[in-house]
Amino acid sequence: MTQATTIDGKAMAAELSAEISAATAKLVANGKTKPGLAVVIIGEDPASQVYVRNKKRTAEACGFNSVQHTLAENVTQEEVLALIDDLNTDPAIHGILVQLPIPAHLDELTVTQSIVPEKDVDGFHFQNIGMLTSGNTDGAFVPCTPAGCMLMIEDQLGKDLSGLNAVIIGRSNIVGKPIASLLLKANATVTICHSRTKDLPQVARNADILVAAVGRPQMVKGDWIKPGAVVIDVGINRIEVEVDGEKKMRLVGDVDFAEAVEVAGAITPVPGGVGPMTIVMLMSNTLQSAQRA
Ligand code: GUN
Q1: pLDDT at residue 58, as a whole number
Q2: Which residues of the chain have pLDDT under 50?
Q3: How many CA atoms lie within 13 A of 208 on its CB side?
Q4: Which residue's C-alpha comes closest to atom 4 of ligand 1?
Q5: Is 49 a known active-site residue?
Q6: What pLDDT shows up at residue 124?
Q7: Phi, psi at 132, each rounded to 5°
């Protein structure tokens, strides 16, 4: 049995990033405002700090106006909403993102819904969710991780997934549900699994396209995978491993890569798969917003 193709998310993202930079340069040359992305981070979550730093770096590399607002852990909801209000009306800003999770004393729903849909580059506003679930993706912002996953799936299987079974493990609003909408729009037959699903491995074995988005390190084993399947691993988990008697932290996905690579047809690695694609889709959404403005 030959090994699966490793889907190079980093290379795909670099290509897209170059296209976005070129489109940005063209926009600016035509006298338009350069795309502006505002990222709001609240508190000190170390993983969030890494993600936000990467987003800022990529935005700058694309030639965007990149603004970061760092708010204290104990900021009040009124202060957060006042900042979002300012950004909503700022003509230099085309995309607003509040990095999740936010501290427990803040109401996530109120905060995410306070971003105007036209600048909601995360695609979390009910208007964007509604457009996506009703199949009207053209005027909507599609959440970045699902959008990136779809590009990688299309790259392997084409745009029309008629006759293919897609199984998604995880029913989150950020990944599971929106990717189900996208796969359905592409004519796949979609199953969403979660913690209450009966005999998950058996359901997974039906998948021509398997998307793992649960946040449990290396949960999906080789014998859960249909031979030749396209496996998209959305998980980013930090685990402790021992290397030469020394304890080290390592990033792993929700899929046991070493096992899966022996069975799948194509698979995304962690790191270097979905992660870089997510960030570049944020840039794509921000560019789109600037072009519409
Ligand atoms: N935290 C983890 N993923 C995401 C995401 O896609 N958007 C935001 N805003 N926060 C996140």
Answers
A1: 97
A2: none
A3: 14
A4: 100
A5: no
A6: 98
A7: -65, -50
- Residue 55 annotated among the catalytic residues of the structure: yes
Q: Do domains 31-116 and 143-275 have the same CATH topology?
A: yes
Q: Which two tokens stand for residue 208?
A: 């021509």
At 142 the pLDDT is 98
Compute and round to an integer the Cα radius of gyration of the chain.
19
- Lookup: tokens for 288: 């789109």
Site to substitute for ligand 1 among 109, 144, 174, most atoms within 8 A of C-beta: 174
Burial 106-120 (b: 16+ CB within 10 A, else e): beeeebbebbebbbb
Centre of ligand 1 from the C-alpha of residue 152, in Å: 19
- For the chain, count helices (H), then strands (E): 10, 11
pLDDT at residue number 245: 94
* Top CATH class, 31-116: alpha beta
Architecture of the 143-275 domain:
3-Layer(aba) Sandwich (3.40)
Q: How close is the Cα of 278 to the center of ligand 1, in Å?
A: 9
- Looking at residue 65, what is its pLDDT? 98
Options 120, 122, 254, 256, the catalytic residue:
122
Could you tell me the pTM of the whole model?
A: 0.97
